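Workshop exercise sheet. Pairs work together: one partner reads the sequence aloud, the other fills in the structure field after running the prediction. Swap roles for the next sheet.
Pair: D.N. / O.F.
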Amino acid sequence: MSAEHKAALAQGRKESRAIKSYLEALAARKPGRPVNKATLNKRLDRVNEKLAESSDPLGRVELIQSRLDIAKALADSDIAEDMGALEAGFIEHAASYSERKGVSYTAWREFGVPASVLRAAGVKETRRR
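Structure field:
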């Protein structure tokens, strides 16, 4: 295997990792307004205060579940904070990946990649016939 072939394979793996990471993060996002860590931490503090004051067993169970849900959302928010870096990786590699793999602008858009990201990546809009 030639050095050029090895370099091409390495480049393909690098592109694929960047594209896949961005798409996974994009798919994991929930619709609606994004919630930040500060808001989640405030909600967690309120739930913990209510939990400390509550004597109702059913209410306590619901508050415990709320605390667990908020903790999961906090863990998921780490992914959202990395979104800028993931998007930059996608932008860097999307045009060459699209050309090499034959992935159209329309396919990216149908998956949910924003048009602005595709424009920044240099992926040209496909014309319908």
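Discussion prompt: The two ends are 42 Å apart (CA to CA). What would you look at next?
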